Amino acid sequence: MEKKSVLVTGGMGFVGANIALKFIEEGYQTILYDITQHEVDFLEEEKERWRFVKGDVDDWRKVLEIVKEYRVEGIVHCVLPIASGSMEMTKANFDACYDVLEVCRLANRDKQVFLYYGDGTFGLNGMEFDTFVRHNLPIVSVISNDSAWGMVKHMHRMWYGEDRLTGTLLKTGQRYDKVVEALGGYGEYVIRIEDIKPALARAVASRLPACINVEVDPKPAHPVTMALDRHMGLLALGQ
Ligand SMILES: Cc1ncc(C[n+]2csc(CCOP(=O)(O)OP(=O)(O)O)c2C)c(N)n1
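^ thats the input. predicted complex w/ thiamine diphosphate below
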């Protein structure tokens, strides 16, 4: 049987490369799409089992070509905005997501959309579930709930000190899944890692817009956050 293909945008980044590794281990033909190629230790060991394609997600025609050429069944979209201003950030955050979804539609891969985000992001965009419900869009979302605007919290900790975290902490165990239920969607709260997969299966089976709210350890920080110096960090936040 022909191996299934998956495309990881931002595949050379920390999150993209780690996700790619999981697909490689599961035997998928894995295509890593990124604007730069560099050595990622744990991917080097698997060199024969993945391909790199250089490109920008802005170039949606190229993404579409790859999807068709490799018969890609799923796209994991993990671009990180390498941006110096809010317009570039908007471009990377919103326009690139739109383009990737358009590519899926044009290639007839409009099967199931999964959305991964933080509890802070739910605070910014949670009411979109009202739109999903009204338009009958069974998007399944997974919240990595660390009870904080994690990236910003870790920056404050690094730059100003542990006792000067300002306006970044959120309520522990907040039930965003119940908000989604109240809006007419499907929700589950998950604490144990082994419960994530069955919860995802139930969410997909519900055929409703869904929120799997997963409580995670608030301590780890993304290595890119830790690598940002204060100047670069403030630029990245558009300040
Ligand atoms: C639209 C928008 N507003 C603000 C920011 C700045 N920002 C970067 S990280 C972050 C906090 C995100 O918190 P959360 O969604 O909980 O994710 P975590 O960092 O905890 O994984 C914010 C507000 C952004 N990137 N985009």
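The first strand starts at residue 5 and ends at 9.
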